[in-house]
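Team,

Forwarding the record for the chain on the shared tracking sheet. I've put the sequence and predicted structure together so nobody has to dig through attachments.
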Amino acid sequence: MRLSLTLALVFSLPFVTSNVAVQRALKSDTRCNEVIARDKSHPTWKALDALYGRIAEAVRKKDLDSLFALYAPDFQVKTLDGESWNRDRTLAFLRDVFSQVKETAHTSNTILRLTVCGEDAATATVLQQWYRTQMVAGGPRRVETNAVQDEHWVRTPDGSWKRTAIDDIRDGAAFLDGKRVNPRMPLDPELPAYDPYEPHPRQSIADALFTIIMRKGVESALQSYRILGQSNDYYVTENQLNALGYRLLGMKKVKEAIEIFKLNVEAYPQSSNVYDSLGEAYMINGDGELAIRSYRRAVELNPQNTNAFDMLKKLQAQ
């Protein structure tokens, strides 16, 4: 079963404005000189600070309607890896994130610097903090993320402010159950502690295996796995091997995916999820009996694995 692991809310991703918003911002830039507002009593500072309070409350309540009401209706999201998301995809992503969050202990957006352009445009440099209990790898985990980013706002004709863009994101420290983790990586409790100053950090064995599979084939990758697994230069986790298997499935490399899922079963024989994933790959490959065995073992290890139970029932009925 594929695990969806997410570190940050979508409002921590860089936003690209719609053409209309960009043009409006450019027009604002040409008709005024930007001024740094140093006084928190500045009307724009007070207005945006109040909106950030509403954002924090919406996050605590997981209120998507209130959160998205503050965004321009036609914005697009450009993620750090270069993908462009429309509003629907962004909303779906955020809904998935909220479904994993069980409780928010603290969330805030603190204005560190405010640049205003007339009365209708402003850019706030904001410190965003979000500390929550979130489901990760099947269990509740304490997740803490911090980031500083520039957020661009435009006042609409009705006087309300809409957030049109977020950019220049600088990731701060992120922690999982008190252990520092890489904010650019999916959450994984098994990952080694992250040290941003380590010149030669340990590498993911799953990434190395993917490169070998693409260049030399899965048999060579299996041989390399035995060697790399003994090296201090690499680390292996259940979630990363599982993700590699699904990556191969997505590329229609089903037999290669099966071999990776089998490695995961070997490394984590008490995990229900690894048998669930192997069963899925067997089913896609048309190996019904092997799929049944894998799903049956997944249910034995975790009777609450509803996906494995449903798939086992379906296969046995055929």
